[in-house]
Each structure stands twice: as C-alpha cells, then as structure tokens.
Design goal:
This protein is mainly alpha-helical and 154 residues long. It has one domain: Hypothetical protein af1432, CATH 1.10.3210. Helices cover 54% and strands 0% of the residues. Helix 3 packs across helix 5 and helix 4 runs antiparallel to helix 5. The longest helix is centred in the N-terminal third of the chain and has 15 residues. The chain starts with a helix and ends with a helix.
Length: 154
C-alpha cells in the first residue's frame, strides 16, 4: 500500500477529487509545501504525504464545513487498509486531519513537528480562496518566513 492507493480510492469514490478549491490540485500543493517545510523540521514525511491527500477528502461542499477534518479522520479509521503506516504514525495522522481547521499556534499539539508541518502546508495554500497566508496562524519558522516574502515584494 502506498499513498497512490489512497489517491486512487478517493478519485474513484468522491467528487471532491476534482474540486477547483479543495481537490487534487490543492492536495498536490499541500504536499509540495509539506515537503519543503519538512526539510526544516523533524516531521515524519510519510505522515505529511498522507495528510496532504487525505485532509480535505471528506468535504461536503466548498464552504466552511468545519466538520470535514473529523470526517476525514473517521474515513481513515474505516479504511485503515489504505494506509501503510505504523499504529503510532496512524494516530498522528488522525490528529493532523481531525485538527487541521481549528488548531492555533500555541496549542500543545503544535509542539509536534509533524502536526505543525501538516497544518502549515495546508494554510500556505489559502490564497486559492482569496485569503493571504498570515504568519500569526503558522506554526513553523519556515511557513512564517514564506508568508512574509510577499510583503517585501519580489
């Protein structure tokens, strides 16, 4: 099993795959941001990759839908066979997807470099919905630095 198996399953069963705001193109950018951030943290790159392609797969619409993270966690539990992770890694993944919409800097979970990397990777792509990434809502030094690049100009 690989992330490819998860992606294939989502593509075959969920319309969100083709969403212009929360589908595969966004997930791919989250994965790219996650890889970049993980180079500067002690994040578990396997969890970061699964997070990128799992975190929004249970959205019901393009709006607020704050319960999509916990639903993605339930999806993962119900489809455990799609995840080639140890039980420890899987627990961190569940925490990452379940908490990605509500986690705020300063929370205890943010001390986990894998959670921080996942959450920042998603937040760095907020421009797709017309918002500007804000360093106050980032967890890692790299993400904070990336959010201020645009403020200084090219």
């Amino acid at each position: 099993m690989t992330v490819r198996t998860l992606k294939r399953y989502i593509r075959e069963h969920y319309d969100i795959w083709s969403s212009p705001l929360h589908g595969i193109e966004h997930w791919q950018r989250v994965w790219e941001f996650g890889r970049s951030i993980a180079r500067t943290t002690d994040a578990d790159i396997e969890i970061v990759e699964y997070f990128a392609f799992l975190h929004d797969c249970q959205r019901w619409d393009e709006g607020t839908d704050l319960a999509h993270g916990p639903r993605a966690g339930m999806f993962a539990i119900q489809h455990r066979e799609l995840f080639d992770l140890t039980q420890s890694q899987f627990r961190v993944l569940l925490r990452a997807v379940s908490g990605h919409t509500a986690a705020m800097p300063g929370c205890a979970a943010a001390q986990n470099p894998t959670l921080a990397t996942c959450w920042d990777a998603d937040r760095l792509d907020i421009g797709r919905v017309g918002l500007t990434p804000d360093p106050r809502f980032m967890f890692t030094d790299m993400a904070k630095a990336l959010t201020t690049v645009g403020e200084r100009g090219p």
